[in-house]
Structure formats: structure tokens, C-alpha cells
Amino acid sequence: MESQQDGQQTEEKYPYVEILGDTVTPTHTIAAVVISVGLGLGGYLLGEKILPGIASAEMVQSYSLLAGIVGCVIALILCAVLFKPKRVLTETEIKPEEADDILAHMQIDYQEEMDVIQHDPVTRKEMEDLKIKDLFMQKEEGKDT
After folding, report:
1. Please, which residues have CB within 8 angstroms of residue 85's CB and are 6 or more apart in sequence?
2. Are 140 and 127 in contact (CB under 8 A)?
3. Is 134 helix (H, G, I), strand (E, B) or coil?
4. Partners of 22 in the β-ladder
């Protein structure tokens, strides 16, 4: 799909789908599953073939499982290197008047949040660090007047 914006051409290379709340490309997802199953199962089956000559009979099954887990860890590292994240995160400044819309969209009860901010020092500190506590406090102060 091609579109023109301000004289620039952009091409959408991959269609995206949502799986378990994350946006992914189907081809990369299928490739990651194939790599993971191949290395995990391959490690297990390789362990069952090689280990009977090396380890005692009662330990072959356990060592084979361990070889499968090692294959899964290798697959994890390989997939992390091959398939980089495609997200673009942007930060915007939130104005106090936009806080209502955001809370409504997230289905958050304002009064419940205020109670947590006022009574839980850990949450209060975290919100101060994120610089979002003032959004709630300004609204509360405006409510009192």
C-alpha cells in the first residue's frame, strides 16, 4: 500500500495483527514459532539420541529436557536478534483538562485514584517521579473551589 504525504512516498511493508494485546507481523510471528519449536524440539530429540551413550539411563530423559530448554533459550536470543521491535513510541505533554478523557478511556475511577494517591506513599512517589500526580491534584484542588 502506497500513500503520498507532503511529497514523500511511504510504503507499508507488512500487515500487522494483534496477538495477546501486542501488534506483530504474521510472517515474523510464524518464523519465530518455527525457530522456537525447531530448536526446542531439536535440542530434546538430539539429547535423546546422543545422551544414552554418555549418561546413565535414568538421567537421559532429564538431560534431554535440559537440552530442549537450552534450545529454547538459543531460539529466544536468535528471535530477539532477527526480529526487532516495530513500535514507535512518542511522548506528548498531557494537559490537566485532557486528564478526564484519558481516565474515561482507561475506565479508571477518579475518586479511587485520588484515595490511592493520598493514602499510599509508594504510589504517590511513583506518580511524582512520572510527573503525573499534579494532573490529579490540580483537578482535586479545582473541585474544592
Report:
1. none
2. no
3. helix
4. 19
pLDDT in tens, 93-129: 777 667 677 777 878 777 787 788 788 888 888 888 8
pTM higher than 0.70 for the full model?
no
Radius of gyration of the chain (CA): 26
Query: What are the grid coordinates assigned to 81, written together?
Result: 536478534
| Pair 23, 87: CB distance under 8 Å | yes
Rounded to an integer, what distance in angstroms lies between the CA atom of residue 67 and that of residue 118? 51
- Interatomic CA distance for residues 68 and 53, integer angstroms: 18
Under a CB-based contact definition with an 8 Å cutoff, are residues 113 and 104 in contact? no
Backbone angles phi, psi at 21, to 5 degrees: 80, 5
State which H helix or E strand residue 86 sits in.
none
Answer for the pair 94, 135: CB distance below 8 angstroms, yes or no: yes
C-alpha cell at 51: 545422551
> What whole-number distance in Å separates Cα of residue 101 and Cα of residue 57?
64
**Residue pLDDT, tens place only, 54-94:** 888 889 999 999 999 999 999 999 999 998 877 777 777 77
